[in-house]
Here is the input.
Amino acid sequence: MSAEDRRTASNDSAPSDLSFLCPTAPEQRAAETAWLEQVLRRPWCARQWAYLRHGGPGYLQSALTLGGGTASSCLIAGAAFGFDLLWVPIVGMVLGGIVFMAIAHQTLSTGMRPFGAMRRYAGPIFAWGWAIGTVLASVVWHLAQYSLASAVLVDLAAVAGWQVPRFGMGLLVLAWAVPMALGFGSGARWRGLFERAMRWMVWSIVGLFALVFVRVGLGHGGAIVEGVCSFNIPADREGVAAAGVIIAGLAAAVGINMTFLYPYTLLARGWGRSHRELARTDIACGMVLPYIIVTTLMIAVAAVTLSPTFSGKSIGPIEAAQSLGAMVGPIWGRVLFDLGILAMASSTIVLHMVCCGVAVSEMSHRPFGGRAFRWGAMIPAPAVIGSLYWSDLSLWLAVPTGVITGFLLPLVYVAFLKLQCSWAYLGRDRPPGGRLVAWVGALVLSTVVLATFLGWYAVTKGPGFIAQWRTIFEGSA
Here is the structure.
């Protein structure tokens, strides 16, 4: 039997090397395998409904991406350009969903540890850039999450008539996030509870912003459809560059740290080749769909409430919440909007820490949940200072942050493209003929779209952006 055949035989139901991941207990995996065998005998529509009810790691990715970067890009897009940029997060997430389906196919077909597989079959530069970029992106975005979380907690307290310090609220979020993140690596039972909590949190975010939008008004259907379908790139407004907001929106949809965490959550569940259809449905319904709904609602709310009076000044969550409160009332507007932002930021903070823990564990080749995981998970913790020092710069820093971390994504996309085409890696699981051409075309499209926007923006806007920040810091000195 060839090496490929041995690997295939060992992976018919679940990957074999799971000891490093604190995997799901064997009896639970056996029960899920029996359930899946029964579901696979149903018609296609019945299978999709069963998959949707079952859920999977896709909701973790949704909770990870629905964070500060998404909130920032959506608020600025809606406030500055109305409904014109509704297409941006949709395009970004659809392209990202294609990449995630490729990741699921590769991981579930081989059962190999993704970092080692990328280092062997794509190249060490791609693998180490992927892991190190995951840690860097998580740390950078952590600052924005604490700024958002602490700001909305202060505003919620103000609604209740209390005054609380922002740094104190940041420490409160940190105190909640640390045990949640460390518990994720403590065992399969806690991780299962955590995944279910993230699934409910994702749909609570959808529900909160849906309620806010309903209260703002539903008479904008035509403008929403036009914004989704027009692919319009509007002229700059009040010093805000549309290209920068577009790139930030594309980068916020899928982060490099999401691509690292996702395959390990698949392996931790004990999923294998027979779970590939379930994984595709989970990506579509657990990651892509909630993201598109939330971003559409946020941009629409900002377009209705903030765009008519937009003056080019920073648009933060407090300003947005207060505008909504004045328009539709303090509860239906301000409190619900604040709670939605808080859910986005707090869930992302926890998953950033998990991403760092997993990346450090893999780079050091240590067991998942061990000392390396715990130390790695604490790497972003000092970013709690973002609750103090990012308040003056507000959400404007989130856009350049999205652009910077976005430059890491094309590297990862190219690596997964190489893996998808590798016979040595996938063997007979490499898509054949026309399917391979379709996969390659979709992955190339995802890479080219992002790289083109990033490259064009860096060349045309980079010098002016650097000069602008030099002026800001010289003026504050």
